Amino acid sequence: MLRALPLLLVILCACPISAAGADALTLSIGDAVQMAVEQNLGLQVATFSPAIAETGIRKARAIYDPLLSALIEHQGSNRQVAPQSFFVDRQRDFNFDTSISQLLPSGATTSLSFSNLWSRDNLTIPVSRFAQPQLTLSFSQPLLQGLGREVTERGITTADDATDSALADWTQQALNTAAAARNQYLLLVVARESVATGQASLNLAREVHAQNDARVRAGVLASYQLQDSRLGVLQAQKNLLDAERAEKDAADQLRATLHLPVGTTIATSPPPFVPSEVSESDAMRTAMLRRPDLVKARVAVHTAEFNEKVSRNLALPSLALQGSSGVTGLDKSYGDAFGDMGSVKYPFWSVGLSFSVPIGNNSARADVAANRLIASQARTQLAAIEESAVLEIRTALRALASAQEEIGVTEQGVTAAEVLMASYLKRQQLGLATTKDVLDVSSSLTLARQNYTSARANYQTAFTNLWKSTGELLDREGIRLKGNSIASSERKGTP
Predict the structure, then answer these.
(1) Residue 366: phi, psi to the nearest 5?
(2) What is the pTM of this model?
């Protein structure tokens, strides 16, 4: 029995037994998280949402695209010159007009147009045939409603906020996926260490039973202790079967999360223990910047406050400064008419103010009131999410600190249980302890080892919860997904 003790301690302290074969897929916890994020079908669907939202920005920016238009038109008419007259006036006009217009950030619209008119008839008078080219520059600048870049680009700002919100939704879903994969990996590690611990306990129970059987046959041990050791073997077998079933369940769950074929063997390794050095202030600062729900809430506040500001502008009366100027030419030949236009002999211009306002303006005032309430609602929602985030982070930090202390306590518990196990093996050898005593101490050692395994897993789980609550889990696991589907993350230099 004393010779069996070192073997027992080696088995209990060994790395978890892996069912992986030579062709197993070996994954670290970081590899599993990376694979889960890359392979998750729901997340792949979600990656298109930010890119789709970003197309809305490009569409909104189209307000600054110059508009080019052209018109080619031929008109004709045959008209009787006077009653009872047999003379018919045959009028033929040909127009070729082109223009380009542009919206300016101030809200002004400006356009440059060039028109050509060729006209002829059969009246044989001096103006029976003439050409009239004309170049016109016009503008209209809002002075109250619609004035300023913010109002002009309200569609761009709204689309930009929608893209940020979609990216925050994607990040939240990616965080959930990464956290689930990490926790499932840890469950598999714990299950495999439980299998190793259960196997070691079964080996010890069998060794005790074999020794008891030999001693009963030699007549130096009461036969009832043989029944105790047989019961210990059966109980150890049941515990091992339960542990093996839990290990298979955990492996199936991880395979499903990683979208691996059924039956794929995954070789795992326990994550290394790294002492925690996380300060509450750093965690809070990171969370305020990175948590997707806070990012989305701040975007909602920005959108609501922006809409409130724009609605106040749109409630103003419409007052616009309008003007135009240009040159024209008129002659029998197009060349001479174009020359007249080029000499600027016949300029024209106009300038004026246009004013309009709905009587009562109730619709615009209702929009202002509604947007003011929406902005207040968004700010209140942001404050509520911030309070929830603070509570979640403080809870995660306490859990991390507690788990770190628990590792030390349970490790000491394993050491104490191993010493007690050695003591009872010696006592049994001297006849000072019964088989039941040895098996009870063996159960205590198994429990201590399982507690130590759970404590290490709880420590890693606490990190998972903390990094998820601060929004930095993806960065911690080195996940960098790039491409057209989420290219909007690079639009503002977002990491």
Answers:
(1) -65, -40
(2) 0.78
